[in-house]
Design goal:
single chain, 205 residues, alpha+beta, two-stranded antiparallel sheet, 10 strands, globular
């Protein structure tokens, strides 16, 4: 059974001529972009929510890998410009942004962890522009620093996504003509030792 509660209407959808709204999944108890607190910036648009959700899912997956203390990604139009893990949030962010700095311009960054003032300065270097910053939490000093750098940047404190209750598995929904396809989320753990290259040159260690 699918149960959703309307949270709010949006100014418009993917394009200005499309009406849109955001709904909460009653079976999903984990923090996410639907329930996230926008601590600074303009209200989220349809595209902001879509990209922020994709970014949050990616860093959550990366952080769930064994031995990964921090993860970050930069996404634009639901496509990663870069994603990385690191010893801490700063290293993960630097690696993720280095993936494709040109494509990252105007994108969304998600960080699995807390953004403090030092991290905010790292994110908001002079040659960068980001539309949305998503993190578990954003310190007050970081909020002020990011807002001073980019007047309209949306800053989202999404909390940390934990283990889902066994009776409420993550669900993926996709519309098709005449209805919906529904499946459980792919939560199969990734084991690096079992990964094997299928084509092309072997990856570097």
């Amino acid at each position: 059974e699918l149960r959703f509660t309307r949270v709010s209407s949006l100014r418009y959808g993917e394009n200005p001529h499309q009406r849109a709204a955001v709904y909460r999944d009653a079976a999903d108890a984990d923090p996410g972009v639907v329930d996230a607190r926008v601590v600074e910036g303009k209200p989220l648009s349809y595209n902001n929510i879509l990209d922020a959700g994709a970014a949050l899912e990616l860093v959550t997956d990366l952080r769930s890998l064994p031995g990964v203390p921090a993860a970050a990604c930069v996404i634009k139009h639901t496509t990663p410009c870069g994603a990385a893990v690191g010893a801490d949030a700063a290293e993960a962010f630097d690696r993720a942004y280095a993936g494709d700095p040109l494509a990252a311009y105007g994108g969304i960054v998600a960080i699995a962890g807390r953004v403090d003032a030092a991290m905010a300065e790292r994110i908001a270097k002079p040659d960068r522009f980001l539309e949305v910053v998503v993190a578990d939490a954003i310190d007050d000093a970081a909020v002020a620093s990011l807002a001073a750098r980019w007047k309209h940047v949306r800053q989202i404190a999404a909390g940390s996504r934990g283990t889902r209750a066994a009776n409420a598995p993550a669900r993926l929904l996709r519309s098709v003509p005449g209805g919906l396809l529904v499946q459980e989320a792919d939560a199969l753990p990734v084991e690096a030792a079992r990964l094997q290259p299928a084509a092309g040159p072997a990856p570097a260690a």
